[in-house]
Amino acid sequence: xxxxxxxxxxxxxxxxxxxxxxxxxxxxxxxxxxxxxxxxxxxxxxxxxxxxxxxxxxxxxxxxxxxxxxxxxxxxxxxxxxxxxxxxxxxxxxxxxxxxxxxxxxxxxxxxxxxxxxxxxxxxxxxxxxxxxxxxxxxxxxxxxxxxxxxxxxxxxxxxxxxxxxxxxxxxxxxxxxxxxxxxxxxxxxxxxxxxxxxxxxxxxxxxxxxxxxxxxxxxxxxxxxxxxxxxxxxxxxxxxxxxxxxxxxxxxxxxxxxxxxxxxxxxxxxxxxxxxxxxxxxxxxxxxxxxxxxxxxxxxxxxxxxxxxxxxxxxxxxxxxxxxxxxxxxxxxxxxxxxxxxxxxxxxxxxxxxxxxxxxxxxxxxxxxxxxxxxxxxxxxxxxxxxxxxxxxxxxxxxxxxxxxxxxxxxxxxxxxxxxxxxxxxxxxxxxxxxxxxxxxxxxxxxxxxxxxxxxxxxxxxxxxxxx
Length: 469
Known about the structure:
With 469 residues, the protein is α+β, with helices and mostly antiparallel strands. It has four domains: 2-152, Beta-Lactamase (2-Layer Sandwich); 163-227; 233-306; 314-465, Histidine kinase-like ATPase, C-terminal domain (Heat Shock Protein 90), CATH 3.30.565.10. Helix content is 54%, strand content 19%. It has 13 helices and 14 strands. The chain has helices at residues 2-17, 23-37, 77-83, 93-96, 101-105, 138-182, 187-254, 260-272, 276-308, 320-330, 332-338, 356-372, 433-443; strands spanning 41-48, 53-61, 64-66, 70-72, 87-89, 110-117, 123-131, 316-318, 339-344, 352-354, 378-386, 396-403, 447-453, 457-465. Helix 1 packs antiparallel against helix 2. Mean pLDDT is 78; it is low at 426-431.
């Protein structure tokens, strides 16, 4: 029963992390958690250290989202959760915390909670389930809750970081308007503001990458699950073949000069009931299946490594086609459902000096933009070639991303690289993707150009020098 529930839970998590980001994510988490645990109340709360209180970000009661609340932690089981690790009170929680009014009002008997931590191991929130009846299987419930907490912690930290960085960028914009008046008096402040902006941009790149990774997770999980199922079924078949062939091998092992005749008869009897050549052919096919499955998983993990690996601001020589292929592989689940990709790669292009993981982020963003531009399905054509243009007297290459999506209005086109400008719906993006991509290409001393016609096409051209000077 637990294995069945656990498999169902993994599927629910894949569906949950497929949602974009923000409020929709938290609401889906608490509803999925309530369903998995059969809990009466579930919520995600944000911890405020100064007031020693928690404010719910999403609160589910009887499988429905209700209005959020804020409460003080003193004399509550949640206070213990934020001090320690996961806390489970399978029954009688009201008597253990008699001063907790909410427990009394909601008639809660069972309590389960885990803390949410930042990447710096600081408590930032809490994930809780309440039960009106005693928890029937506390260990199982605890394991289920712990499956949710890692991704929830990452999303809460990303939301907090984005809020801080957006506020900081807005503050810096206000400072920028006053710089002409204050330049003589506040030279040192200007220097600090510029340093803060650089830090903010670096953190925004990380935040946008985390959001992209969250969006990719469901597809990646599906892509890894397919070869894993392939390997699992092949191993089961190998075990069955082993059961059939092993008795013959045992008899061969028993062969002795004085008893050869009887054992050979036994072997012939066993052989008559078994098609050895067919089994050997099956072994070859199954082994190849396992090898193909392992290779597929290895390719996906390699692509993730290139996307997530960071070597600071250090440039290194890299194959631009390999970076493109890895970006396409990471998005393969979405592409299979939505788009046909045509690759026109010039094999004569040499390795270029670049920061591979940052270019990977740009390519993923551009492909995702194309996917979002399709009504149902479409075509993405990616071309690489030598450029006729030179940058700082250096030879360059061009990468052209062309899709047949809905296009971009001419009035909108001049603003697409502005920070926080987006035509997407709420919770489907912050308008940072192209802004960050523009910054990364400029960091590579390159250029990024966009042409588009409404309901016809969008073409993004990236020009990069082969050698950085």
